[in-house]
Amino acid sequence: MNNDFNKIIEDVIIQNFGYDNGKIIYGTAIIQYIIKKTKSANKGSKSRGSFANLYAIYVLIEDYINKGYTANNEYRTYEGAKFSTLYTRQRELPFGSKLQNHALNHRMNEEFKKFFPTLEIIPIIRDSENNRYWFNEQLLLVNIAGKTYNISSLIIEIINQYIKAKQNAMTSFLNKCEEMKNISNTNTDEVYYFIVSLLDKNVDARLFEIVSYSILKFYYNDIKIYWGYELDKLIEDNLILYKTGRTNANDGGIDFVMKPLGRFFQVTETIDFKKYFLDIDKVAKFPMTFVVKTDIDIKSLNIEIEKKAYEVYGIKPIVDTYLKSIEELINIPILLQRFEDTIRAGHLNNILDEIIIQSEVEFNV
User: Fold this and answer.
1) Is 177 a domain residue?
2) Nearest of 361, 364, 355 to residue 96 by alpha carbon
3) Which of 53, 141, 172, 209 could potentially form a cystine with 267 if both were Cys, beta carbons 3.0 to 4.6 Å apart?
4) How far apart are the C-alpha atoms of 61 and 55, rounded to whole Å?
5) Per the structure, how many domains does the chain have?
6) What angle separates helix 19-26 from helix 29-37, to the nearest 10 degrees?
7) pLDDT for 149-181, tens place per residue?
8) Same structural domain for residues 304 and 273?
């Protein structure tokens, strides 16, 4: 999407509340928070969406509206929305099918406090004992010149506009993929640079995982191994890489699995190495390859991982166990090199087809 999404937010506010009141509402904490969380609408399909925290807001305010609390001041007596109802609803929304409970339980509040450290109220109120939730009504009521305005419907409208923008951007991306497919036999350079652009550090994590998988699948496919239980009865096999499920899934730290070697792969955009150790623990220290969305060279990554391991554990035998569990690190430069290797092997069209297939599955097309 090429339009400035902030302008869309401004227009929606002015249409609902007029120019003068709109300026005040635009500056409120919850609207400013939403502005920060919808920045990716300005960057097209390849930028990361921020649906988890936005949908936590959305489903609670939607519940607030549906229960009729915009027309009265009885919300303080409301027993609260059930977690199961909110959780189901956020997963029904576009791009929400894999969302977990973290935003509702703490992440949205923690991020809001980071953005507004002097504001003493939090957006989501939770009764953890009874699993009931409320949205803080103080953030929905704006007093202007003695008159109170309820902006709950406005927030729903803005988030709906964001959903529409991201859906349009994703449709444009898939159309671009199809366009590349149509010219792949006549203009390989354009197709090459298109796929390279999908490995940028700012690309949506889901898309990075899809492109990484597509490249590595055909890179390993040309590698043969010979194995068997008897020396005179060896089996010749190509390495096959399988994607274990949807991206960013809660799958215990396994994104790809390779047969017949049984290698585990985890795709990550972080260089917070404590997370690597957590992923390794999830699979009982089974050796794992990390595909990292970074340009940092492998030697530097290994040095930093070892440094962090000593900071966290301090004991050499334990540190050595974790370091041995990192079978390989693959960064963006290595992915680009392997992409070029697969092109020389004639797999450019195969990689593009795989990106299209995986993207359609991931984005429910």
Assistant:
1) no
2) 364
3) 209
4) 10
5) 2
6) 70
7) 999 999 999 999 999 988 888 888 889 998 998
8) yes
Q: Are residues 109 and 218 in the same domain?
A: no
pTM: 0.73
Query: Are the C-beta atoms of residues 65 and 156 closer than 8 Å to each other?
Result: yes
pLDDT > 50? residue 266: yes
Of all residues in the chain, the percent with pLDDT exceeding 90 is: 68
Q: Which residue type, as a one-letter code, is found at position 288?
A: M
- Kindly indicate the confidence band of residue 273, based on its pLDDT and cuts at 50, 70 and 90: confident
Domain limit, last residue, from 166, 201, 232? 166
What are the DSSP calls for 107-144, one per residue?
IHHHHHHHH-TT----SEEEETTTTEEEE-GGGTEEEE
Q: What's the first-to-final CA gap in the chain, in angstroms? A: 18
Do 147 and 262 belong together in one domain? no
- Domain of 221 in residue numbering reads as 184-362
Q: How far apart are CA 283 and CA 286, in angstroms?
A: 6
Three-state secondary-structure class, residue 345: coil
Tell me, yes or no, whether 257 lies in a domain. yes
Whether 271 has a pLDDT exceeding 60, the answer reads: yes
Alpha-helical (H) ranges within 18-130 are 19-26, 29-37, 51-66, 83-92, 102, 108-115
pLDDT band at 45 (very low <50, low <70, confident <90, very high): very low
Judgement on whether residues 349 and 240 belong to the same structural domain of the protein: yes
Mean pLDDT over all residues of the chain? Answer: 89
Residue at 160 is within a domain: yes
Mean pLDDT of 89-103: 87
Q: 103 and 69, same structural domain?
A: yes
Confidence of residue 276 (pLDDT cuts 50, 70, 90): confident
- 299 exposure class (CB count in 10 Å sphere: 0-12, 13-18, 19+): exposed
Domain identity same for 103 and 153: yes
In whole angstroms, how far apart are CA 90 and each of 16, 85, 117?
25, 9, 27
Do 161 and 209 belong to one domain? no
Asked whether residue 145 is domain-assigned, the answer is yes
